[in-house]
Amino acid sequence: MMNNIPKVKIGIVAVSRDCFPEALSVNRRKALVEAYKAKYDESDIYECPVCIVESEIHMVQALEDVKAAGCNAIAVYLGNFGPEISETLLAKHFDGPAMFLAAAEESQNDLSDGRGDAYCGMLNASYNLKLRNVRAYIPEYPVGTAEECADMIHEFVPIARAVVGLSRLKIISFGPRPLNFLACNAPIKQLYNLGVEIEENSELDLFESFNKHAGDQRIPEVVKDMEAELGAGNKKPEVLAKLAQYELTLLDWVEAHKGYREYVVIAGKCWPAFQTQFGFVPCYVNSRLTGRGIPVSCEVDIYGALSEFIGTCVSNDAVTLLDINNSVPADMYREAIEGKFNYTHKDTFMGFHCGNTCTSKLTSFNMKYQKIMARSLPIEVTNGTLEGDIIPGDITFFRLQSTADSKLRAYVAQGEVLPVATKSFGGIGVFAIPQMGRFYRHVLIEGNYPHHGAVAFGHYGKALYEVFKLIGVCPDEIGYNHPAGVPYRTENPFA
To answer: How confident is the model at residue 1 (pLDDT cuts 50, 70, 90)?
Structure first.
């Protein structure tokens, strides 16, 4: 269960231009609500009954009503042409994400008093939103029947969940980035622009808190839970007590430091001194918290943790953070992929991290030592990583990042994890994304993205793209994997 993301409640507010029949908006709103309840969870929505918004006074009344009803998002529904000033003020003054959609005409037999002209009104609404610098979500084709508009609102639910979550999020980080990790730089100005708070702490603060949790009476209960989760994969039982102590340290820190914010993610330190001082690696604990909806990124990757949170909100599921790590060997491609899947060799790569992917997203798993760190350290201080092949299926690879000069940019690419044994270590999978080779060169490299990418388990590109637009990323700065024949701006046309 994701217990660190908001529950969205969308207030449906119908609007009407005073020279059009108000009954059109009333009846169309009722039909829309009935269509939504017939198909989706009715707790997602609230029908604002106070009035049909025709004036600024009505706008204030509607705002007060949806606020009293506990709505954290609104859908402004043009049942007819709509009052362009009042309806856009509604979005401007509502403290949360807003969408705009419009009613289609019902029948050729009622195009006199029954014609609403909302198709026209949507143009004026969009123009007024821009005049007021209001960002609102407008579906790809925002005019529809009651059933089609119900589908549009349902698509808005995960988008609104992410935007609401960001407005109430705190990122807690521990320590500076490890040496040689300049790629994970995190200019924090854009966090504040997004409405996100950040609390930066020293590793020493965390270490002090960890030591104070020694002998915590809750440790045996957490160890028991870990044992139940790991089962036969519990290869290092001697480290469970320390891992439980660390998990309790993080959870208590979150509760003590979240302040007025409702949601928290963590950007944690895991090397180079962590292992020798704490006596373990935190990967398995990170995976457990991420599996509950509290993403914990590796290597103090602040924008990685932020991206994971967005993915958790959109998918309502656990996510992970992986290195875009290594190419698939040619012999593996020939043996396990070529002729079996419709991907070229350059469409494939391996996504890997030491062990932060939760057990529910692995085909099988073992909690053991961290191989890379054990090359230069005693194995016993590298215990605590979670290894296994990532489950096959649809995925979305994505990231939100601030550049060094504080410009927001993002990328989104849909693909899949192939059912191919990795024959490697760590939390790892063989990934395939159409046209990955070109995407790698002209989005990831050209856009100066770090090697960390967030992974959502399913195809969520459409919603993520809309989230990024809604929070202020310029569409020109949202990269995606272009189909063959659609060139990138930097792609050599003679190559």
So the answer is: low
Of the candidates 45, 36, 90, the one whose C-alpha atom is nearest the C-alpha of residue 69 is 45
| pLDDT number for residue 51 | 65
With vertex at residue 9, the alpha carbon angle to CA 7 and CA 12, rounded to the nearest 5 degrees, is 165
- How far apart CA 163 and CA 220 sit, in angstroms, is 38
| Residue 439 belongs to some domain of the structure | yes
pTM: 0.95
Q: Is the dihedral of CA 447, 450, 451, 457 positive or negative?
A: negative
Give the structural domain span for 383: 169-480
33, 47 contact by CB (below 8 A): yes
Q: Do 118 and 174 belong together in one domain? A: no
* Closest residue by Cα to residue 136 from 81, 170, 71, 89: 89
Please tell me the total number of residues recorded for the chain in this structure. 495
Transcribe 367-412 into DSSP letters: EEE-HHHHTTS-GGGSEEEEEEEBPPEEEEEEEEEE-TTS-EEEEE
Among 328, 272, 299, which Cα is nearest to 450's?
Answer: 299
Under 8 Å between Cβ of 190 and 72: no
**266 inside domain:** yes
- Domain limit, last residue, from 119, 147, 165: 165
Of 101, 134, 165, the residue at which a domain comes to its end is 165
pLDDT attached to residue 404: 80
**What is the predicted pLDDT for the residue at 10?**
98
Whether residue 126 sits in one domain with residue 181 = no
DSSP 335: I
**Number of domains composing the chain:** 2
